[in-house]
Structure formats: C-alpha cells, structure tokens
TrEMBL record:
The keyword Lipid metabolism does not apply. It comes from Holdemania massiliensis. Gene3D superfamilies: 3.40.50.2300. The keyword Methyltransferase does not apply. It comes from the Bacteria. Keywords: Arsenical resistance. Pfam families: LMWPc. This is Arsenate reductase ArsC.
Amino acid sequence: MKKPKVAFVCVHNSCRSQIAEALGKYLSSNVFDSYSAGTETKPQINQDAVRLMKEMYQIDMEKTQYSKLLSEIPQVDIVITMGCNVNCPTIPCKYREDWGLNDPTGKNDDEFLKTIHSIHAKILELTEKIKIMR
C-alpha cells in the first residue's frame, strides 16, 4: 500500500507547520510523506525554530524546506491544522485533525521547546493512527 501524504497547515507556513514537516520526515518517513503549507507565506522559516531544530535534531530545515502556499503541494490524504485560530481552508482529504497549538513566534525558547516537544509527540501519535488505518 502506498504511503499517505500528510499536509501540516498553518497560516504563514513559517513555524509550527515547518517543524511538523521536518519531524514527520525525520520520525515517520517510513509511514507517511510530509508536506507543509499555508494560506500566506513568509520570506523565511522562523529563525528560532530553525536554530532549535538544528540543536535538538541536527535538522537544517532551511536546506530542504521553504514557506509555501497550499497550491504548491500535491493532493494529500490527511490534513493536520496547527491551530490557526482563524478559518482554516477546506482541503480535500480522507482524514483531518486540528492540533490546537499556540504559535511560539516572538516568544522565548521555552515556549518553542514546548511546541517542538508537543509536535514530536503528536507526530508519533499520528504515525500509530496511520498504521492502524491501513
């Protein structure tokens, strides 16, 4: 069976969704393909997120990822919204989930670390759900 495609979506595609894409690839690339996108873009990925992901996982998100629009990713099977607190766009999919994560942008490293740890745990939970769905 082919791997499902998962889209991690938030407004600017610059922080939480980028972290989720990177951790999805890092932790679960054997179970699903990870993409991230937003309804708007930023010129670069959040630099605190980039720095902390390098420190924690040795992942340089800027090497393989960039802020992109929903129209720039393939059709997906699963949509995970980060908790935009705005009207998230409707994207055709077989399964949808909202993670309700607060945006750590502009906050201290502790807030970023909480968000990264939460995304890590949620990626592992999602991986198990996908294994069961198959």
